[in-house]
Structures
1.
Amino acid sequence: MIKAALSVLLVLVALSSTFGKYIPKSGKRIPQTLSRGWGDQLIWAQTYEEALYWSRSRNKPLMVLFHLEDCPHSKALKKVFSEDDKIQKMLDEDFIVLNLVYETTDKHLSPDGQYVPRIIFVDPAMTVRADINGRYSNRMYAYEPSDLDLLKGNMEAAKKLLKSEL
C-alpha cells in the first residue's frame, strides 16, 4: 500500500513540474549543462564558432548572452529570463542561442566594453547588430530584469531585420 501511494505521489510530482513551463514543439528535452539555467529546454551552442555555423546554415539570428555565475545582476536576469515562456518559445523556434561565462576573442562582441549581463545579436551573415541594444547609453547591450519587454522587442527586431535584409 505504501509503495502504491509513493508511486502515485511520484507521478503527481512529475506531472506538476511539467505544467506551466514552455515545452518545445519537438517535445521535452533533457536539460543540458550548456544552458546554465537560462533555459534548460533550449538547444544551446557550445562555442561561438559553432553558433555562427548554425546561424548561417539554419538562417536564424544568433543571440549571445554573456554572464557570470556569481554576478547578482546575471542571477536576477537569469531568473526572469528562464521563467518567461514567450522568450523561451521565441528562442527555441527562431534563434540560435549561446551563453558564455567568458569573453571571446571576437572584439565585435564587446563594442562598448566587457560587462555582464550583456546580450548581443548576430545575423546569419555574421554581422554583429550594433543597432539592436538596450536602454543604457553607457552599457548599450545590458538588460535588467525590468527590461524583459525591451528584450522581447529587440528579439522581434532581430527576426524582422533578418527577413527584410534577405
Note: The longest helix spans residues 2-18.
2.
Amino acid sequence: MILLQSAKFLGAGLATIGLAGAGVGIGTVFGALVIGVSRNPSLQGELFKLAILGFALTEAIALFSLMMAFLILFAL
C-alpha cells in the first residue's frame, strides 16, 4: 500500500515536468512576438493573433499535464 502511494506521488511529480516545458514554450512565443514586431511594426495585429493562438495551444499542453498529474494522484 505504501509502495503504491509513493509510486503515485512519483508519477504525479514526473507528470508535472510538462508544466516547465509549457513555461518555456510561452516565453518563446512571446519572445518571438517581440522580435517580430520590432522588425516589422506594421504586422503587429497579425503577429499578435498568431501569438495568442500559440499561447493557447501551449497552455493546453500545460493543462493536460496538470490533469494527468491529478488523475494519477486521485484516480481509484
Note: The helical segments are 2-15, 17-39, 44-74.
3.
Amino acid sequence: MTGRAMDPLPAAAVGSAAEKEADEEADPPATGSPVHPVIEWGGSMQMPQGNPLLLPYTLQELLARDSVQVELIPEKKGLFLKHVEYEVSSQRFKTSVCRRYNDFVVFHEMLLHRFPYRMVPALPPKRVLGADREFIEGRRRALKRFINLVARHPPFSEDATLRLFLSFSGPDVQNKLREAAQGVGDEFLNCKVATRAKDFLPPDIQTQFAVSRELIRNLYNSFYKLRDRAERIASRAIDNAADLLIFGKELSALGSDTTPLPSWATLHLSTWASLKQALKGLSVEFAVLADKAVQQGKQEENDVVEKLNLFLDLLQAYKDLCERHEKGVLHKHQRALHKYGLMKRQMMTATVQNCEPESVEQLESRIVEQENVIQTMELRNYFSLYCLHQETQLVHVYLPLTSHILGAFVNSQIQGHKEMSKVWNDLKPKLSCLFAGPHSVLTPPRSPAEDSLCPH
C-alpha cells in the first residue's frame, strides 16, 4: 500500500485468465448434464471454474430449489397478549417448524450480517396493537414471499443460517441463530474470490451499475402499476360475486312475497303466481355465479397479484442493496481516504516542526494502520460491486416470471368466463315462463345477435 490517496472508485482491471484458472478446480459434470461453472458462494465451497461472476441459473432452476409454505397456526398462546404463530414447511428439507414474526426478524438480521452485499428482501411491518384479520393475512403472504426469495437465492440457500431457520425445532430459535452467527464473519471474509473480485469485473462497471439501477427503477414503477391494476381486477371480481349473490336473493325474496293482490288485479293472478314461482328458484343459479366469481378473484389474487408482489419484493431488495452500497461500503471507503489525507498532512506538519521522534513514530504507525484500513475498504468496495453484478443478473433471471404472470391472468379470465358462461346458458331456459308473448305464448326476448340472423 503506497502513501498516495486512492480514487475510491478506480477503473477495474481484467486479470489474466491463466492466473484465474490456476487455482480453480471443479468436479466433472455428470454424463449428459449441462456444463455449468460452479459458483463460489462461501468459504466452505470449492473454487469456481471460469469466471465466477457469471450466473448459470434459469428461473426454473431457482424455483426448483425449494417451495416454502407459511400458514397460520389457529392456536394462540399467551394469557393477555395473543401471539400469531406460523407453520413454516420446507419442501427441500422435508421439515415443518413453528415460527413467530420475531423469529423472522432475527433471521433477517443474521442474513444482513452474513450477506451485506446481497439482496436481502425486506420484512413486512410489525403492528403492535390492533392487528386485524386482514393485516395478519397480508403479513402471512409477505412472509411467505420473503422466505421463498431467500430459500431460492443461490448464496442464501447454501448457508447454514437458512437450514437452521427452516429445520431447528427447539424452544428458542432466536438464540440459536445468534449463537450460530458468533465468530462467523460476513461473506467477504468467507468467500475465496473476495480479494480478487476486481479481476472479474468489467472495466465499465460503474457505467453498467448506473444503467442497471435506472432500469430496475423503471421496472419497479411499471410492475407496481401492474400490481395495482391486478389487485383492482381481482377485487372487482369478488365485489361482482357479492352483487350477484344479493341480486339472486332479491329475486328470491320477490318470488316469496306473500302480500295479497288488490281486487282489481285478480284477472292476472295466474300470471303473477307463475312469475313468483319462477323467481323463487333463480337464487340458486345466482349463488353459483357468485361462487364462480369469487373463485376467479381468489385465483387472480394468488396466481397474479402474489407473483407480481414477489417480483416487486425482489426489485425493492435490489434498490435497497444499491442504497447500502452507496451509503455503506462506498461511504466508509471515502471516509477512510479523508482520514488518511488528514493524517498525512499531520505527518508533514510534524516533520517540518521537528517534533519528538516518538510522536512521529506513533503518527507513522497510525498512518500504516489507516493504509491497511483503506486497502480493506477498497477490496470490500470491489467485492460489493462484484456482488451487485451478480444480483443484477439474478433479477434478470427472474424476469421471465412476467410470462408466468400473464399466463396465469389469461388462463384465469378464460376459465372464469367459460364457467360463468355455462351457468348463464343453463339459466336462460328457466326464464322462459317469465316472458308472455302474444296469445299467451311465452317467448323470451331475442338477443341482438339472434335478431341479426332473422330475415325481415
Note: The two ends are 97 Å apart (CA to CA).
